[in-house]
Amino acid sequence: MFNLIVKRALWAIPVLWIVATLTFLLARIVPGGPFDAEKNLPPEVVSNIKAKYYLDKPVTEQYWRYMKRLVQGDLGVSYKYVNRTVNDILQDAFPVSLQLGSLALLIAIGLGVPLGTIAAVRRGTAVDQTAMLLSTLGISVPGFVAGAALILIFGLWLRVAPVALWESARHMLLPALTLALSPAAFLARLTRASVLEVLEKDWVRTARSKGLSPCQVLVKHVLRNALVPIATVLGPLTAILITGSFVVEFVYAIPGMGRFFITAVINRDYDLILGTTLIFAALLILANTAVDIVYTYLDPQIQLKD
Amino acid sequence: MSSNLEQLSIERKHVQSSAQPGLFLYAWLRLARVPTAYAALWIIALMIALALISWSSIPITPYTYDETSHAILNAPSWSHPMGTDELGRDLLTRIIYGSRMSMSIGFVTALVAFVIGTVYGSIAGFYGGKIDSLLMRGIDIAYSLPDLLVMILIGILVGRGTLGILVALGLVSWMGTARLVRAQLLQLKNEEFIEAARAQGQGTLELVRKHLLPNAIGPIIVALTFTIPSAILSESTLSFIGLGLSSPECSWGTLASDGWRSLRTHWHLIACPSFFIFLTVLSFNFLGDGLRDALDPRTRITR
């Protein structure tokens, strides 16, 4: 396992480098620059600002400057949030998204996996149909519409939860639910399919005929194997959830990473775009490595290579 | 030996030519028996009809302002079944016009995903080896760039408007199809009938087009059916960020996100277009589920 971690860490370097380079190019190929929105600035001022951030230099030189700083762990400066470094912004914004995303992940797993399992075990019954109807409903709603519905019902009509801001645990309730809705539904559908497939296996019949109780068969034999495909999607899902969702953070006015990311892209705040993208890519690699380690616990047959 | 192979190949061709319509007929019969999938088909047909109607003339256009009365931000009523927006435009009419954009976006994205995904996946799956691992690492990297980053930047690069949105959605939607096609081809290419066709001297392109892809078409169709609803949802998210169609053009996504602004006071403005998005996306998801079961050879045997 140690070897795996070392190899993945080494592999992560070229991947992050490619992601950084692609994002760098993509952001600069697209027309427009960080100071376009500032109206009526005299050209001298604009050229001074650009010179300050080395944006008047050729792209290759900007690239080398960025890469040199990146190697030292410096993600650069923001052009829009004046006097703030990208590291500084991310240090404030990432914990917020991390908390919200982890809570949403827990809700999604806690709702989705049991729902899917029950549906599979009770296949073809009303329980199954209701569970599948609910989970298909869950993946069919745009995030901001789900947010709007929750705000209207729980925030404005029933008044049980605050509708915005990031102050107390109660404030996390509605945003976490909004964020968890579609992953929960997706996990329920996936779990059902996966459990159904495992239930058909010969060794499940063997386990039953051995006299194990249905509950033991389900937990020890079925679920353990059915969790393998679920673990596969949990990797990317974790990375997506904890790096923040623009929609949820915008709807509930939460100062998380998702909002900074989208505003950075729209403003061409180059370093901030690169910083958030790199964090996402790094977390994705980390989560996928964790998933690979979890595999070996779920299914000892899986050998860890590269 | 060669005649043997030829025989096998002819048999296979024979089976293929009769099995293909057979498969689809069978799938259709199975699909029609699943109530949710059957209802979904009708709803989708209705939405397509709605989109087609929008090209013919309807009495009021989505750009018409009702100046006769104080028709701004009306609640639903007989003259405006879904109310009016902040400029006094009839919401139902705008939703009918919006269906044209939303449905086209869904289908065109699926088409783009199909073309790019099939070509990319075929090359990876057919050649295997180094080309395959290189192309698959490419997909890994494409996945590690956030979708919204690519969509926004491509959208801006191509130009804001319909084309930009279509290209942007297409470019983030093909990876799943590519992986699927590759996996199918890797599995199929060692089958005997492929060997037979190869021995007959068929070229690579012919082999992929005539023998490999037709045998993989079931899962591809299912995957594309799920691409349509996710494209419709992504478009609504883009609209919400403010990078959707520019007004006065409209799609269900732009209508719903415009409605967000008056959520507290006039929630019908977000509820009505959202209901159409929801119903359509739900239908495509149910249709995809139904198709997956109907086209799955394993469930075919067990009935």
Q: What's the overall average pLDDT of chain A, rounded? A: 86
Q: Could you name the ranges of chain A where pLDDT drops below 50 across 5 or more consecutive residues?
A: none
Q: How many distinct beta strands of chain B?
A: 0
Which protein chains make the most extensive interface, counting residues with beta carbons within 8 Å of the other chain's beta carbons? A-B, 42 and 38 residues
Please give the CATH class of chain A. Answer: Mainly Alpha
Helices and strands of chain A, in order, run as: HHHHHHHHHHHH
CATH architecture of chain A: Orthogonal Bundle
Description:
The complex is a heterodimer of chains A (306) and B (303). Chain A has helices at 2-29, 43-52, 59-71, 86-121, 126-138, 143-157, 170-199, 202-209, 214-242, 246-251, 257-267, 270-298. With 306 residues, chain A is mostly helical. Chain A has a single domain (1-306), classed as MetI-like (MetI-like fold, Orthogonal Bundle), CATH 1.10.3720. Chain A is globular, with a radius of gyration of 24 Å. Chain B has 303 residues and is mainly alpha-helical. Chain B has one domain (2-56, 89-302): MetI-like (MetI-like fold). Chain B contains 11 helices and no strands. The two termini of chain B are 38 Å apart. At the A-B interface, helix 1, helix 5, helix 6, helix 10 and helix 11 of A face helix 4, helix 5, helix 8, helix 9 and helix 10 of B.
Summarize the SSE layout with pairings:
The complex is a heterodimer of chains A (306) and B (303).
Chain A: H1 2-29, H2 43-52, H3 59-71, H4 86-121, H5 126-138, H6 143-157, H7 170-199, H8 202-209, H9 214-242, H10 246-251, H11 257-267, H12 270-298
Helix pairs in contact in A: 1-12, 4-5, 4-7, 4-9, 5-7, 6-7, 7-9, 8-9, 9-12, 11-12
Chain B: H1 2-33, H2 35-53, H3 91-127, H4 129-144, H5 147-158, H6 162-188, H7 192-199, H8 204-241, H9 252-260, H10 268-295, H11 297-302
